[in-house]
Amino acid sequence: MATFPAFLRNFQMYPQKGAAYEFLSPLLGQLKQVDFVLRVANPLANQGQMDSNLDESLKNAILALGASPVHLPLPPGVPQKLDFAFKYADQTVAVEIEKANREKILRDILKCHMYFHSYANFAIVALPKNYPHLHGVWDLFDFGKQRFDECNTYGFGTAGNLGRILLLGFQQFDASTNEPLSVETRQRMRAHASGR
Known about the structure:
The chain is built from six helices and eleven strands. The protein has 196 residues and is an alpha+beta fold. The two termini are 14 Å apart.
C-alpha cells in the first residue's frame, strides 16, 4: 500500500444563517489546516480508488478545538453507520463525511434527520470542493449546496430540521507539492503506487 501526505484547507460553511451556523461557526471557524493521509491499496483495482484517514483526522482536529467525543446510538432498525459525533457547549453534533459520491448527499441529509431522532442537536455534512476522479474534479460542496437549497425549496425536510444541518466544505491538497488535489495529482499518486 502506498501512502501520500495531504491536507485540508479553505473551510467554508453553508448556509451562513440559521441555528447550526450560529452554534457551530465559532468552533469550525477555527479550522485552518487538517493533515491526513491518502492511501492507494491497489492501483490496478477499482480504477486505483484511494482511501484515507480523513474522517479520523477531521474528528481529531475538531476535538483539539475544545469539543469532546460522544457516542450517538442510532434508532433501532437504522442500518447506517455514523462517521463520528462530538459534544460542544453541551450540544451533541453528528458528522457525516461524503468524500466521493455526490449521489449520496441527499441520503446524508436524510441520515442527519435520523441522528436528530437519536438526540443529536445538530449535524454536519462535510464535503470536498475538489474530489478528483477518473474523468475530472467534482465540487461536492457546490453540489451539496444545490441539493440543500432544493430541500428547502421543495419541502424535503422541515425548516426546523434543515436549520440544524450545516454543510462544511473544504479543499484537499497534496502535501508534497502544496497543489490542490486534481486528476493530475491522482494519476501521479497511482503511478507512484504501481512503481511507474
